[in-house]
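The instructor's notes for this session suggest beginning with a concrete chain rather than abstract definitions. Hand out the sequence below and ask the class to guess, before any prediction is shown, which regions might be ordered.
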Amino acid sequence: MKRLLLWSQILALLLAACATSPPPTPDPLAAYLPDFDPAILPADVDIEDFPRYDISLQVDPGKREVDGTARIHLRNLSGRPLNDVYVRLYPNLPQLVGGMRFKSVVTLPDRFAAGYAFALQNTAIRITLIEPLPPDESLDLEIRYLVKAPHREGYVLFGESEGVLSLPYSYPILAAQTRDPTSPWRLDVPPPHGDITISDPSFFTVTATVPSTVTLIATGVEISRTESSPGWTQHVFVTGPVREWSMMMGEQFRRQSLVVDGVTINSYYLANDERSGRSALAKAASVLRVYNRLLGPYPYKELDIVEAPTRYLGMEYSGLNFIGLDTYRNQIETQEILIAHEIAHQWWYNLVGSDPFRYPWLDEGLAEHSSMLYVDTLYGKEEADRIRALRWQIPIQWAKDNGYDDVVGQEVTAFNGTNYETLVYAKSASFFDAVYQQVGRETYLKILQTFIERYRFKTPTPEDFLDTVREVSGYDPQPLYEKWILSAERKPLPSPTPSPTPAGG
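After discussion, reveal the predicted structure:
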């Protein structure tokens, strides 16, 4: 009887403890875990510092319109009260020939109830808060918006061409925070020849409703697909942390998939380009295997390669790589190196953040040099030397001979459509190659792996890379940095031959 009484008392105490214990705190990462390995998050990073997007949108491909609502959760990281919040409207950039307009903006909690005005040549809105947001406190913005995309021919990054509707930048993007109390937001307006987005790594849940006849391709993992109404399908994607979310769609897409090192690689291609689409899948699988070993494991569950109306060029987005359709149809020999370059950006831009306005050379040079490392690993020195000559040495010499050489270590606005790719890609890759030749392959790979480990989901500066080289290798790369990044060589152009007769007016 005494033993029974004792157990009754213990049970009563346990029940009382359970009744008074607070409920378990929800895991803020749980919703996003279908897409990424949480082990990649640095130990010194607070998850609450990452913006969170909850987006609901509907796309009408016939009208090329996106009608959406975005709820953006943000924390004030500036160290001072924030009176204004900036949100980017990248479709309003002249080079994208599209448009985004806002229907309404509200804040949650509503004590910050806001008004807004266009800024930065209509490529942003400044949301003025009635009550300043204190440092380290958070709020939610709820924005209703409409995006209009153009129909265009030729190279198309944003809009419809060749039956493909490309819709990067198709949601309001929170401007990147600087953690500088004197200037808390990055407010640069990108020129036509550079990359566009400057944003902080963020978590996304996106519910996209599109016609059921359309294949929808997007950043992240699709966790559900339902028929929302006759003829319309609702897709739900989660992802994070990534630099941006992107999507594209079309009725003629086909898909082939492979699993490599636990990652599903999807190759999307147009119906008439199946052979090249299968080839793209095999090449992407090869690239991922090599980079997983050279740079470190790709930490997401999916990687998409998509035939896009970007002619013979490519463009990287988080988890989603546009590969120009010309490489599927009449320049197949260039497809592999283009895929290698764009996939390298999943490390040099997505994992290790880039600043495409202040230091455009840093991630482009690393991506370009990584693609050479891939070629060297798979095909050997002779093929790597051919890549060096074709993609770097010949263009650099042309720039010098024709007066286009310039200092690489400048903001993107210092370049133009003629010399941007030659210098920001080829000349900067030559700097990384010079470091590679100096320290040797094993040490160089250790430098890259250390750089990734140290600056995951951060945005390092050139000095951060130089310091990593010094620490890992004991070699000071400053002379090479000054030669390739801080110097220029312009040969004087020959004097024009006098015309035998005066030029006509």
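Then share the key points. The two ends are 119 Å apart (CA to CA). The chain has three domains: 50-242, 252-346, 352-484.
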